[in-house]
Structure formats: C-alpha cells, structure tokens
C-alpha cells in the first residue's frame, strides 16, 4: 500500500529531522513534569485533545497534551481529525498503508481499518484530499517523538495508527459512531488523539462575536439577525464596567471556556448544545463529539470515578484580538484517563 507523504513538512513544521527533533524536545521540555498532582505522562491518560496549526503557533500548546499522553501500553493509536479539504458527512478511513514523517514512517493498522470498513459505516478519504489535509498530519511527528520516548529508537516496536476523518453529523449520528467505536476504547492497548483547534475569530472565518449592549453579538450575523444576541449571557464582572466593555479577546475566551467546560462534563449532549448555541468555530467539534460519545458509551458500562472525562491543561490564542479587522485562532490541550 502507498505511503502518504508528509506534505506539510518544510512549511507548517520543520522538514529537517534533526531540527524538528530539537524543536519538539524544546516544546515538551517547557511543560512541567507534573500536572494535577501527577507525574507525566499521566498514568492511564490514553486520550488527548491537541491543536493542529503550524508548530510555531500551536506546537507549545500541543506539547502539554502530548507530555500527558500515556503510551506505555499502546498497541494501536487512533487519530481523529476534521476535514478541511472536502465536505464530509460521517467518518472516513485512510487508504494509505503508511504515514511519512521526517523521522520515518508510521504504519497504518490495516487490520483495524479493514474491520471498520466492513461495517459499512465509513467512507474512504480521497487520496489527494488526504494528502492535502493537515489535521491528521500535524500530529504524526509529535506522536513519533512520544513513541520514541516510550519505546526507544527502534520504530519497528511502534504501534500502528488508525487515521480517521470525522465530518458533519447530528448529535444522534455522533452517538452512533461512539457506540461503534466504544469497544476499541475498552481495549487498554488503544490510545486516542483528537485533533482540534478552538475558536477561529475574524472576517475570514465569518465569525466575529463581540460585546455590545450588554451581550454577545456577531458582526457577521445575517443582516436580518444583525443585532441578535447569541444564546449566551456570561457574568462579565468588572470587565462589563469598562468604557467599551470586555475586549474581543475576552469574548473569545468566554466562548472557548463555555465549550471546554461542556467537554469536561463528559456529557456529549452538553457540548453539542453549547456549539449549537454559540456557533463557536471549533474546527474539531465533530471529532471531539465522537470521542465524547465513545467515552460516554464506555462509562455506561462502568468506569471508576474521575475517568472518561477530559481535563484541560493549556489554553492559548494566536492573537489577542482588539479590533474587528483582527483575527485569531485558539488552541487548547486536554487529556482523559480511561
């Protein structure tokens, strides 16, 4: 089977093996050695959410999730990401046999992808679209680095990967994929990477919520709804008493916190509702939703207290927006013990 080329190497991240290795080491070294009273990696933290922008933007944030990720028992790694290159309904599987990185190739778990394909619930990613897609690729070098730290330099000992694109879906459709994939999460030999950036703010994203007249309004709402307040009324505290009210970057933070708080509840429906209410442009909302549905399905079969829920450990923005002409993308990292 063909190898998917590392099409974003040399542009979105370093293409030189030694330079890239040093960069990832630097990102990871900047993360504390303990989080939430646990040494890193967090024992049993087999699931993470991490961003997928160019490493100069999101690499330091992604390192928080990757340093928490426990790969010690991993025999296969699922990578779930959104599609940026074509419209996708439901989920799609790779047709490639390997994923290239500047370090070497990671092998695709053909047995698992074939098993999933046989359910009839998955489409295949068009090869050219998959090569152009960055949401999966941006995690492969980070994963290689952590596998190397876990298993040593012999890549033949690295577990294979299962890349899956997760497209549009209703709440019920996400839950259905959650039930379908839940048996794989029950296997302690699986690790999961969920690829997502958070709020994309700016005219280029047709999403510019701001504070005005006591609420959150969107510059880019349809003309007929130009002054409609979004279905969110946060407590702004002292920020609301400033002459112009909360700055735009504070609005962005509130919207992202609403999404992150909903994710941390572990209730799939809570997150789905927040996205519907706020219209937050979380590009990986469907991969996150499917992952939450997977964990929710598993938790119904019984999980220890505190397991099966994400904990966010880092939040950053590419720019602190103050003007309507600005733009920014938010990044967040989280882990879940299962």
From TrEMBL:
It comes from the Eukaryota. InterPro entries: MEMO1_fam. NCBIfam families: AmmeMemoSam_B. Belongs to the MEMO1 family. This is MEMO1 family.
